[in-house]
Amino acid sequence: MSPPPVLSAGRPVPAGAGLSLKPQHGAEILATRPPVAFFEIHAENHMAAGGPMMRLVDRIADSYPLSVHGVGLSLGGPTPPDRAHLARLSALVARVQPGLVSEHIAWSAVPGRILGDLLPIPYDETSLVRLAAHVDQVQTALRRPILMENPSSYVRFRADRMAEPDFLAELVARTGCGLLVDVTNILISALNHTADPLALLDPLPAAAIGEIHLAGHATVTEPDGGRLLIDDHGSPVPDAVWALYRRLVTRTGPRPTLIEWDTDVPAFPVLAAEARRAEAVLDGVRDTQSGGAHVRG
Amino acid sequence: MSADDGLAAPFDRFAEALLDPGLPVPADLVRGGGGDLARRFAIHRTGVRRVWREALAARFPVTEQLVDAEFFAAAADLFLEAFPPLSPVVGEQGAEFPAFLASFPPLADLPLVADVARLEQAIAEASTAAEAAPLPLSVLAGEDPARLADARLGLHPSVRLVETATPARSVWHAHQGETPPAAPADWQGEHTLILRPDTDIRIAALGRGEAAFVAALRTGAAIATAAAAGQSDPAFAIGAALPALFTRGAVVQLVPGILPSDQGLSR
Fold it and tell me: In B98-189, which ranges are E strands?
């Protein structure tokens, strides 16, 4: 086990279970103050000059640690991060003082057009050099390390020369960034390419892992009988993901863990129950860490 | 890859194939385990359309109801071809959508659709505009009338004015309830004031003169000058229009007129 990496600059995000902040749950959260370890916001949903979404995030930031999760910088893409967009992200980070800031190992734009989907990059030296340079630019602008999330994969490149865990470890070594390990993406990427999820999960450098994502996925049966897993964040976390998660945190120790549910979002208590399930896994790891079985009330 | 491929070439090929389903899957892609690569690539082809369609549907809900979801999705796809998204903030996409609909040939006989879209775009802009504290009506009480005539008003950043040749506001209101919308009794043009002085959007019907008054104030005209712009409408009364702006929360700044004794002050 290793201690979590020092990646916090704002109000620290504890190694507990958090939830994505949904505007439809805002009033309920502010009225009932549920015991959620942190809330995560999508950066691009909170870049307006004003209005209800900005007011909500300000009030949540007064009461809870926050994680800011960006989807718009296209750091794996051919061009450096857009300066104007990076400035808006910096302003949001300065405003809400999140404990964690994260982005994706993906690209989502070409010059003159935002594509709006998280697209795959080749795992080769060219990609790594470019991605590392872009991560450096973000970390320099924000004056803090960020976490980079592993993608969900449907297609990959003939040019791939590195295994995903090696690519991620090398990115960490070159930039000092941390990792956001999306366990559902590990399962999806492995099964969609008939690989072993443990081969993607177990080699990840524990000391770099600053956050974990858990989500549901859709499963489609293909005409040839094969299974295709799609990362739709639209259902409870499946058992296969819980098993991989337990394995991961047993190795790394407790980490901030987010339940993602973005499609067909259920009532808040359903999300809170998923978070409690993650807390129970983390409690189990803490019990083992502290060396003993003790009776819980 | 040929030797003269730039570093960006694989991304360009990927993007072109994403946007044009008639193109083959880029030759540099594979999938593990065999099976149909095109089905895999289609996940991304769908992804790059769905996100913007959903964003436009969220921004223009009544517009979508007026035409139906299938027509709306087709119009959204064509719009995105004409106006490729330039901001990674998905919620900001669509400022040009009302103008696109206004010149969209299938809607040539239905100007209402583009007018409702203009209203919904104004609502979206007001929803995310900067915050400012409205001034209470009582600030008018202590003002010297001569000075007030020369004063200028700073309006709330969320204030939008929408003039439509169709009863777009009435139709929009009729689509807010649970009951099936009824057609407006009078099919005529409307002036609408939209603002968000605090948490909630406010939508007000304005007379023609009142709209001209507010439009003039927005350009920085003094109150007396703006009132003159409203006078072409016999229903316009400055004694009602000015207090109404305050009670609606539309005024955030009162900049006194410059009298001779004020020389040297800047605004």
Answer: 152-155, 160-164
* Residue range B44-68, pLDDT digits in tens: 999 999 999 999 999 999 999 999 9
SS3 assignment, position B17: helix
Question: What's the pLDDT tens digit per position in A13-41?
Answer: 999 999 999 999 999 999 999 999 999 99
A 141-180 residues inside an 8 A Cβ radius of B: 154-159
Contact between B31 and A229 (Cβ < 8 Å): no
- Residue with structure tokens 């004003």? A50
Chain B: give the shortest CA distance to residue A259, in Å. Answer: 21
Residues of B in contact with A129 (CB under 8 A): none
Residues 207-266 of B with CB under 8 A from A: none
Q: How far is B5 from chain A (nearest CA, A)?
A: 13
What are B8's two structure tokens?
A: 């960006």
- ipTM for the complex shown: 0.91
- The amino acid that residue A117 corresponds to is D
Q: Which residue of B has its CA nearest to A74?
A: B88
Nearest to A85 among B15, B88, B127 (CB): B88
Instruction: Kindly tell me the burial class for residue B176, based on how many C-beta atoms sit within 10 Å of its own C-beta (0-12, 13-18, 19 or more).
Output: exposed
Inter-chain CB proximity A230 and B43 less than 8 Å: yes
User: Which of B27, B33, B90 has its CB closest to that of A193?
Assistant: B33
Q: Which two three-digit tokens encode residue A292?
A: 């003993």
* Closest by CA position to B147, among listed B258, B240, B261: B258
Q: Do A110 and B88 touch (CB under 8 A)?
A: no
Residues B72, B63 contacting (CB under 8 angstroms):
yes
Q: Which helix (H) or strand (E) holds B252?
A: strand B251-255
| Residues B152 and B178 sit within 8 Å (Cβ to Cβ) | no
